[in-house]
């Protein structure tokens, strides 16, 4: 039965705070966006950002519809998809870590929409976060409004904070414009991506 308006607002605020804590914290996608911004610049990373957002929408839909749970009822298939996603993210980390210094990058093909989509849809941390948010929180609203509200909040958090990660990375780019420091920055982001992949993998165990 729907709760009182005040209790619904309080629950919604609590959910929004939890969504920010889980979805805006460092992870494969957020760090990849910051790394892309630092390595290639804001303008050249926008398509990557759009692709990640679209992939996260797919991931959220799989969790919301229960297909993610069904998938994990087949351990071999679930493990295969997990391994594929980890390998892909590691390859992206390598690509960013070996990106050329800023002054030599113009001829380099940057990660685009497709790369972002795969990263968003294969983001292990995102699945764990969506499962916790959509399955563990109750707002007290009617079922239709509740699911729609939670999904909308998650989407807004992803879009806003992913963009902020990209923006922050692009600002760091100006600080590390020297070729040597540019390399250090790119490699550091790549190592952080690898670390978050390892941490995200523990969430599936």
TrEMBL record:
The chain crosses the membrane at residues 12-36, 48-70, 76-94, 115-137, 149-168, 180-201. GO terms for biological process: cysteine export across plasma membrane. The keyword Transmembrane helix applies. One of its GO terms (molecular function) is amino acid transmembrane transporter activity. It is a multi-pass membrane protein. One of its GO terms (cellular component) is plasma membrane. It comes from the Bacteria. This is Lysine transporter LysE. It comes from Pseudomonas fildesensis. The lineage of its organism: Bacteria, Pseudomonadati, Pseudomonadota, Gammaproteobacteria, Pseudomonadales.
């Amino acid at each position: 039965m729907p709760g009182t308006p005040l209790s619904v607002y309080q629950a919604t605020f609590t959910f929004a705070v939890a969504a920010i804590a889980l979805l805006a914290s460092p992870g494969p996608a957020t760090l990849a966006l910051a790394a892309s911004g630092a390595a290639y610049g804001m303008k050249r990373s926008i398509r990557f950002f759009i692709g990640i957002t679209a992939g996260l929408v797919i991931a959220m839909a799989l969790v919301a519809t229960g297909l993610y749970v069904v998938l994990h009822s087949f351990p071999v298939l679930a493990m295969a998809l997990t391994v594929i996603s980890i390998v892909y993210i590691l390859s992206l980390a390598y690509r960013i870590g070996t990106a050329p210094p800023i002054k030599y990058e113009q001829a380099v093909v940057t990660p685009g929409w497709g790369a972002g989509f795969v990263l968003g849809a294969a983001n292990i941390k995102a699945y764990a976060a969506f499962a916790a948010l959509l399955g563990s929180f109750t707002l007290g609203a009617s079922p239709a409004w509740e699911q729609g509200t939670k999904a909308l909040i998650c989407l807004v958090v992803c879009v806003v904070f992913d963009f902020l990660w990209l923006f922050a990375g692009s600002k760091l780019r100006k600080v590390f414009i020297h070729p040597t420091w540019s390399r250090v920055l790119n490699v550091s982001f790549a190592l952080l991506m690898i670390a978050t992949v390892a941490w995200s993998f523990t969430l599936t165990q």
